[in-house]
Amino acid sequence: MLADAWLVAAKDLKVEWRARIIINQVAPFTLLIVVLFGLALDADPETLRNTAPGLFWVAVLLITLLAVQRGAAIETSDGAQERILLSDLDPAAVFLGKALALLVQLLALEVLLGVAIVVLFDVSVGDPLLMVVSALAASVGIAAAGTIYGVLAVGLGVRETLLPILLLPVLAPVLISATRTFGDAFDRVDADGWAWLGMLAMFGVIYMVSGLLAYGVLLEET
Amino acid sequence: MNPANHPAIQLVDAVSLLGRFPALAGLSLTVQPGEVVLIQGPNGAGKTTALRLCAGLLRLESGHGLVLGHNLANDRRSVRRRVGLLGHATGLYEDLTVAENVEFWAKASHADVKTVPSALSHLGLPARLHDLQVRRLSAGQRRRTALATLLVRRPELWLLDEPHAALDQEGRDIVDQLVADAADAGATVLLASHELERVAGISRRVVTIAGGRLVGDTGADTAKPTGQRDQDQARNAR
What we know:
CATH superfamily of the largest domain in chain B: P-loop containing nucleotide triphosphate hydrolases
Number of helices of chain A: 8
Largest interface: A-B, 20 and 27 residues
Order of helices and strands of chain B: EEEHEEHEHHHHEHEHEEH
Number of strands of chain A: 0
Largest sheet of chain A: none
Oligomer: heterodimer
Number of strands of chain B: 10
Radius of gyration of chain B: 18 Å
Strand order of the largest sheet of chain B: 6-7-8-3-9-10
Shape of chain B: globular
Helix content of chain A: over 70%
CATH class of the largest domain in chain B: Alpha Beta
Strand content of chain B: 25-35%
CATH architecture of the largest domain in chain B: 3-Layer(aba) Sandwich
Order of helices and strands of chain A: HHHHHHHH
Distance between the termini of chain B: 36 Å
Structural class of chain A: mainly alpha
Structural class of chain B: alpha/beta
CATH topology of the largest domain in chain B: Rossmann fold
C-alpha cells in the first residue's frame, strides 16, 4: 500500500511542479493575505503580534481551499479519477498519497507564510520546537480532511462554492487548537501549547483514520 | 472463479439509472470469451452506459449481471481490476508527459513498465512524442496515448467507446489491429461505434440497442471467438 501511496503522491507533486499553480498563484496569494491583514491592522503593531497566530491559521485554511480545489481538478479534468477506480490502486493508498502530496504543499506554503508573518509583523518565536511540531500535526489533520472533502465535493459537482462551507467547519477544531499552540510558541497567550498539541494530534489521527476508511466509498459515489 | 466457465458478459434484464433516468431499461446481452461485439444504436440508446456498467463503474439497479464471472451487484471492484475501458475522456494528466502517463497507469495496474516503450510504438507514437506533455498533443495523439495505457494493462475485457473517434486513417488501422490482436490473445472486446462499415471488418456480431434495451442481434449464432474461428479455418483447410 505504501508503494501505491508514494506513486500517487509523486504523481500529484510532479503535476503540481509542472503546472506551477501553487508557486505562481497560491504562494503570491499567501503573501497577499499577510500584507492585507497588516494593512487592516496597521494602526496597532501590538495587535498584529497578538493576532498573528490566528491570522496565520486563517490564512492556512484559505490556501488549503485553493490547494484542495486544485488537487480535485487534477483528477477530474479528463476523467483520471474514473481511471483510478479502474486501476489496481487501493483506495486507502490513493487517499494516503493525495493527502501526503497536499501535506507537502501546505508545509511549503506555511514556511513562506511563517517567514512573512515573523518579518512583517515583527513576531518573536519563543518556542520554535512547539511551533514546528504543532504546524506539522495541524497540517496532517488539514491535509487529511481536505483530501476527504475534496473528493466529496467533486461528487456533488459544485466544489468551487460548496467546498468552503463543507470543509471550514470541520477544520474549526484544528484552527482553535493550532492558534493556541502558536500563541504559546509566540509567547502571546497564557496557554499550555503542548496540551493543545495533543488535541491537534488527536484530530490528525481522527481525520487520517476516517480518510483511510471512507475514501473508497466516497470515490465510488463520485 | 474461472472466467473460462462463464460468458465474459451476461446481462439479464439489466437496469441502470443515470440520476432518475433509466439509461438501461432491461438490457439482456451475453458475450462469450474471445468475441468481438459491436454495440450500435442511436444517440442516447444506452451504448456508453452499457459499457460503463460492464466496466463496473455503474450500479446495477435491478436485473442480473455477471462480468468475467464476477457479480455486478456485489463485486464491481473485482470487475474493474480486469477490464480496460476507453471512454470519451482519456484519463490522462495534461502536465505529465506521454511516457509518464503510460508508466503511471502501468504501475497503478501493477503491470510491467518495461512494456511501455513497445506499447507506445505499437500505437504509432514516435519517440519524439514520448517526452512531450499531454497538453501539447492533438486529440488523436491523446487517444492513442490512452489506448497505450490500456495495452500495457492487457485487460481480459476491452470496452471501447467510439475507439476510432479523433483518429486519422493510420490511427484507425492501428485500433483495428489492436482489437484483432486482443481477440487473438483470448480477450473479449465490446465496442460502441457509429462507424458500422469500418467495425464490420473486425466484428462479426452486431447488437443494436435502443431505449436501453436490446432490439437486434445479428451474427450471434455465426460469430465465434477469433481464436476459435482460426482453429475452424485451419481444420477446414485440412
